[in-house]
Amino acid sequence: MLIEIHNLKVSLGGVTILHDVDLSLGQGEIYGLLGPNGAGKTTTIATAVGLLKPDRGLVRTLGRDPLSEPNAIYARLGMLPERNGFYDWMTASDYLSFFAALYNLRPSQSEIRERLARFGLAPRPGQRIGTFSRGMRQRLGLARALIADPALLILDEPTNGLDPRGRREMHDILIDLGTNHGVGILLCTHLLDDVERLCKRIGVIVEGSTVAEGTIADLVRGHDRLVRFRLHLGGDISTSHVPAAITVVARTGEWCTVDLAPEIDPDTAWRELLFMGWPITEVRREGGGIEELYLGLTEGKAA
Amino acid sequence: MSAIGSIARKEGGDLLLSPRGLAWLLTMAIVLSVFGLLLVGNTELSLLDNAQVVYDMGGIVTALGALLAVVVGTDAVAGERERGTLVSLLLTPASRNSILLGKLGGQAIAWGVMYAIALPYFWAVGSTGQNLADGAVSVALFGTPVVLGFGFLAMGLGARLESARSSLLCGLIALLLSASPLLLGPSLRQSAIGRAFDAVNPFSGALNAYDAVIIDSQSILAQLPHFAVTLVWLALTLWFAARGFSRVSS
Amino acid sequence: MHMTLRILCLAIALSLTGGRAWASSLGVELTAASSNPRSPRMGDNLSFHTVIRNDGPTPIDGLIAWISLVRIDKGNEQPVDLEDWSAHKAVTAARLAPGEAVRTDWPMRLIQAGTYRVIVSAVSRDSANLTASPFADFTVRRKPVVESRRVLPVAIGIPLLLGGLMFWRWRS
User: Fold this and answer.
1) Which of B86, C46, C54, C159 has its CA 20 to 30 A from that of A109?
2) Is the pTM of this model over 0.90?
3) What residue numbers bound the domain in which A23 lies?
């Protein structure tokens, strides 16, 4: 396990911020940490990296105690905090070279340029970070977090300020890191689209406690929410060929609305209908899924 | 380059290559220039004794150096925390001590640059050169612990206080308190409290050393008691900065 | 009658002698050092030599002698604070036996132009009067010490240099 947190309690200034948090992240996994503002996500991350001392509970990061062995952890950790500042007077190359030196690395200028290009950054020679757009800063921050090829990456709102193409490129990078390089990624974000695309497992923290943790599919099923699809049909269907776990709710012209029972996997349900001969030309999901799950878990708890 | 060297170099770059740092240096130079121009333009001042002028310049350079140190020291911890750059530094394999030493090195670079800027001013007002070399050496020797001490104090305050503004305010008040005997005048310094304060005040220690060397032509080696006061100040503020920095979080 | 007159005269003589002796039992001499420049300027060093002698028949206890400086330019008459002029401002002696003398030098650095009068004064614990030395006058010539040829280029040049550096960084 890259991160193991059990029964975590953290207080700051006499106020208990975290009551009971559990979190576990394995190698090559992308884990989404969700919760309303002020729920304790950033405090959890700060404790996981040794910046805060827990009152109670087990915290292991990269197999070590972050309070007693922080430097051993940091050598294999990359982090992009939500409020990541830069030295505006530096160039992007200077910035990466500076941080590389702190990891005892000495990349050449061409290696630095290659890294920057990998993140879609090709600044003018001598262009200072102070002139970068928000999106360029985010990319540079990610490049800095990955400068030492870490085993564990912690990202807090990494797609902030990115346009849709930039977000998609960021997603591709993260998926590649997890799938092909075995990097464990803890992703803290409010963007459920990002979570749905990137994360297999999520944890939801509400008012300092973990209220849900597991795969998205399990959690959605476990919360007993019906998933509804609107299907565009290119022809007639026979309702006698509808599986038992699927209920046809309505037919309006070429559109057919169906509800899926909680035990059926939404991702495979409409494929099953296709195999049964339904002439489906378009699938739209309505309700259920992670958004409903999240809203249900955090109802009345938003900061 | 080691982590300490990299961070010290970064801190130096912050001063010399950022608009903010250059503006600070420019402001310091303007103050020195105003003093120099006053000496030339004002009949009474232009007839000041040469040693007195060198002594006054030494005092001003030390005061400005301490002021710059408070600003740089505040920025090194509290400023970086507010700008969101500190946590990235803390989460690298560079140890807390390395980061702290690097920032302390940055303080030394700032004072070195300040001193280098001041040297031409010393030469310009030193004129006949009487006690000029001793004066410049005295400022380097006795002024350095005083100036660096204020920088370390500001770093310690920045580590402990919530905001850079609070830290800067406290640092400036401490500087003003230390410089207050100079503002109060010789008669108040002769009181029991004034003398006691003078004995432990690092600023007074440096200025008394300048007085003895530049004006009274005493030897630099004879100023050991004054030097001791400045060294104790340096040690205490270094401890204060180290303790505070070891506990700083994001 | 003659005896009374003699006694009266003796008493008067004794009282006068005792007063003069009391007033003049401390003798203070002040001379300028021969090495002093004839026409000193600001920044020069002068030295004065003092001999304080017990001319009386009895010892003098708790002697304090100090140097004073006044400026006597017309319209600018004022006492001078010796703070920057001299580090040696007083001399003491616990006891001065009859005929014994205290010799001391008073070095002085000339801080400001003008005409000055230096005096050394002395008192003892039991004396009722101050004993002063003769005056020593001297004139200090002006000497401008700050050369505008040096100051102006530095005072203007360095801020311009730093400003130029700022501009260059801003442009690049």
Assistant:
1) B86
2) no
3) 3-219
